[in-house]
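Incident log, structure service

09:12 report received: a user says their structure output differs between two submissions of the same chain.
09:20 pulled the input from the user's history:
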Amino acid sequence: MKLIKIILPVLLLSSGISAQNAYDIVKKSDDKLRSATSFAKIKITAVRPSWSKEMIIKTWTKNSNYSVALVTSPAKEKGIVFLRRDKEVWNYVPSISRTIKLPPSMMTQGWMGTDLTNDDMIKQSSILVDYNHKIAGEELIDGYNTWKIVLTPKENAAVIWGKIIMWIDKEEYNQLRGEYYDEDNFLINKLIGSNIKEFDGRKIPSHMEFIPEDNPGNKTLIDYLELNFNTKIPEKYFTTSYMKRLR
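09:34 re-ran on a clean worker, output below:
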């Protein structure tokens, strides 16, 4: 989630004109949520059959290599910070005043009790670098004409998905649907984007639903409350020494 734009892969071949076009489409979609720097305020809600949990997250990004996320509510988890610097990921936990470096094996674990993984939230894997891309067709999604694009991981890519399918609209290059498959080609998660709004001059889905296929009644909702691009962000925000002081 990869919040996340949360962020997402598809079944691909890297040869031919259609593959190059597919890459360009995915890149344009990915670029809509990227800039030299960005700031976002996001509400994330984990929904379960008998309860729900709501969190407010602030995120700051720099290019595609640096990102930091701060939990501002609920009070029990306020102050928890996740930091990515290139391939390194760090977690600051205020209740024990410790900064922990997360090993790659933890990227597949659930993030903060939601249906997202650490990799979804921190965006360690890249749908542009780690996957091949191929246009598999065209479909109408919620009144939008979309490309159906399949991504498959490149050899030796350190990714958690065996295949990703994306539906990207032809006008605004928004990802409106996503399906995530494991290495055995079983559907694991679905992503649904809706409620397109304009943030800082860019129209994007402001509401996303992340739905696990093997847990009926479970889902995670992601709502953009604020989103600004090319904002001035102090360099210290992306250092481990500043994680405990981030506000």
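09:41 both user submissions now match this output. Likely a transient worker issue. Closing.
09:42 reviewer note: The domain at 17-63+126-232 is CATH 2.50.20.10 (outer membrane lipoprotein receptor (LolB), chain A). The helical segments are 17-31, 118-122.
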